[in-house]
Amino acid sequence: MFPWGGERRFNAYSHYCRTHFGGRIQKLPVDAGFSCPNRVSRTQGGCTYCANNAFTPSYLTENDDVTTQLENGKRFFEKRYPSNNGYFAYFQAYTNTLAPLSVLRDKIESSLHVSNIKGIIISTRPDCLPDDVLDYLSELNTHTHLTIELGVESFHNETLTHIHRGHTVECTFESFEKLHSRNIPTGAHLIFGLPNETPTQWLSDVQLLNLLHPQFVKFHQLQIFKNTAMQSEYHDHPERFHPLSADDYVQFLCDYLERLSPEIVIERFSAEVPPRYLAVSQWNLLRHDALVRKVEEELLKRESWQGCRDAINRVSTEPTTANY
Ligand code: SF4
């Protein structure tokens, strides 16, 4: 038994769902028709890697209302996972706090009228949490299982500027602090592989993630999508990128996990999209489940586990140098 009470060597989201809901909970992505300030007005066309359509499930139609999307999602996943214990409404597409409060309230709360919805996950940007929205989220948090998922992506301002994220690392920390001061559960989304970053930097950055201390985290390897500014950059300046092989990514993840606070629940280790969206293919299409198995095998081989290096909330004095 590990510090989080589970048998697996990392603090898995599946364990969290079993503990809190008695079994598997499926997320149902929703496109509530919101936009993104970064695409519309701020920087040149949004984040250089942005390809939201790559993450849109086949059953999801933007023009359907939230209730219809959720019912369609339930029908889709009922067949795949008949033993589901319920669903989370996952407001995933674009920036889901970017609308007048009355519109947000209507769209978000309509999901709670759908049967077997056990909670809501709202994905947004760190710079899109004004006070009236935070007050509303505090209220919402009192009567449903709520998570606010923020795109952190990188802990380096040079990188955030380079990829046109349109916010800073300081803004990220401020937003998490505002949410935590209201006891609103948080999730962080991070990308490994952004231009001009190295695995040694990512390993050092785990200390910043421990300080940020989200309840949940999703890790994604950088994927380069067709028809994006990043595809052009990759073509013109491949030297700026540090793609890892699948085996090296497994080694990296294990090194990272050993330094990660055991309290942070891990939702994903990698992203998976239909190959037709990718400009650069990866890992011979190794699926997420297979990657997780390799991570668990490696942790077992090392006899290590998440947080075994006691990295919780303090900066390690041990040098972190990646060998890949
Ligand atoms: S914040 Fe998200 S939706 Fe907006 S430009 Fe960046 S990746 Fe695209």
Explain what the structure shows.
The chain is an alpha/beta fold and 324 residues long. The chain has one domain: Aldolase class I (TIM Barrel, Alpha-Beta Barrel). 37% of the residues lie in helices and 14% in strands. It has a seven-stranded parallel beta sheet. Residues 36, 38-39, 46-47, 50, 52, 94, 125, 151 line the site of iron/sulfur cluster.
Layout of strands and helices, then pairs:
Blueprint: H1 13-21, E1 26-30, H2 37-42, H3 66-80, E2 87-91, H4 101-110, E3 117-124, H5 131-141, E4 145-153, H6 157-162, H7 169-181, E5 186-192, H8 199-212, E6 216-221, H9 229-236, H10 246-259, E7 265-268, H11 288-302
Parallel strand pairs: 1-2, 2-3, 3-4, 4-5, 5-6, 6-7
The protein binds iron/sulfur cluster.
Residues 36, 38-39, 46-47, 50, 52, 94, 125, 151 line the site of iron/sulfur cluster.
